[in-house]
TrEMBL record:
Keywords: Acyltransferase, Transferase. The keyword tRNA processing does not apply. InterPro entries: Acyl_CoA_acyltransferase, Bact_Acetyltransf, BioF2-like_GNAT_dom, GNAT_dom. This is Acetyltransferase (GNAT) family protein. SUPFAM superfamilies: Acyl-CoA N-acyltransferases (Nat). It comes from the Bacteria. It holds the Pfam family Acetyltransf_1. It comes from Kribbella orskensis. Residues 1-144, 152-291 form the N-acetyltransferase domain. The keyword Thylakoid does not apply.
Amino acid sequence: MVPDDAEAVSALRRATFSYSVMSPASTRHLIEVHSPAERFLGLVAISGRDLVAWGATGLNTWTSEEGQAGVSIYVHPEHRRQGIADALAKPLHDHLAEVGAVRARTFAEPGGVEFAKRFGYDGTRQMHYSGVDPRVLPPRPPAPEGIELVTMDTLDARQAYTADAVATLDEPSDSPADAIDYDDWVREVWESPALDKSLGVAAMAGDEVAAFSAIETDGDRAWSAMTGSIPAYRGRGLAKLAKWEALRRCADAGIVGAFTSNDDENGPMLAVNNWLGYRRVQTQTGLLRTL
């Protein structure tokens, strides 16, 4: 996979997962920007002049647990059951063996679970995907005294990183996200063309980010990249408030569909999304394989 594949990979992802949001520009960024320690490998499958599948893998460098890795394989619906996924899976897993991975994680829609199990994966968790029309929201929740809402383009990178790194610690996962390098985060997240800082919202307590909701966009669709609260400010409805305001700004910007994902164990965020009107569109199974 090379940067010039970005437009075709983005189109393939949309055809495979209609609820996923990844523009050609953000896909190019995904292909190009990686920490060397990740040992990233991306592969594509070509039929004639068409890109019909892609696969990617690399080490998880944002956890203190060594040897953790992720694997993704997408095949266009019109080209499935031709052995393409098998052809991608073998070199991806061979690569992980070469770079010292000890455990790999993947996510699969219901139709892909049995395929993953054939490669030694086993289910561990559920990831729910849901969407909402941001033009139709419940009434705005009240803002607690002393809290100011600002757009994320008014923050500096260090403020946003600190809030993201702290909030992410409590995200349900098979490996803790407890080793996020600042410089890598800036390159991969803050400087990503997917991140629309004019739509993302932070709830500020003085100079500190108390809660935030980050937004990625692709045309008239948006993705909630991350919504979280700092532990000291939880229980005050700030994540709900920040996400409501971010969705309102999305609607004003012409967004007609906003999507997100939540681990089944993340009850507080699922409750916020249910209140906002999100409706489930798909559930994927998270699976692990010991290498």
